[in-house]
Write a structure and sequence with these properties.
This protein is an alpha/beta fold. Strands 4-5-3-1-2-6 form a six-stranded mixed sheet, sandwiched between helices. Helix 2 links the parallel strand 1 and strand 2. The termini are close together. About 30% of the residues are buried. The model has no long low-confidence stretch (mean pLDDT about 80).
């Protein structure tokens, strides 16, 4: 199974997804309305933006690599989505967001709406 197939098992495609430090292929195969915060964004800023994004979209999920120090999130009950591109990934929800997080100095979000469905999951 791949990461997006596992995400489809736990997250309805009508709900938004935000991706952190991802490979571009994830966008190509995404079935969800997808947000990201810049492909080359500073990681600390990206975590803060993801936390703030979940406050705006509490029914959303953040797709995040497990090898990064995910400040602003409690990973103790995060959903593991498996491995892709030599990295393990988590699905983070509003339940994983810490009660507070430093506000980002600059907030930018980018939106992708898939027009076609690729893959059979």
């Amino acid at each position: 199974m791949n990461v997006l197939q596992n995400l489809a098992k736990v997250h309805d495609v009508s709900r938004p997804v935000a991706m952190l430090d991802f490979r571009e292929q994830f966008l190509l195969f995404s079935r969800w309305p997808t947000y990201h915060f810049g492909y080359h964004a500073d990681h600390n800023l990206e975590y803060q933006q993801a936390w703030q994004w979940l406050q705006r979209y509490p029914d959303g999920v953040v797709l995040a690599p497990a090898d990064l120090p995910l400040v602003c999130f409690d990973l103790s009950n995060a959903t593991s989505l498996g491995n892709a591109h030599r990295r393990d990934y988590y699905a983070l929800t509003i339940n994983n967001a810490l009660p507070s997080c430093a506000a980002p100095t600059d907030y930018r979000e980018y939106y992708y709406l898939p027009t076609e469905q690729y893959g059979n999951f």
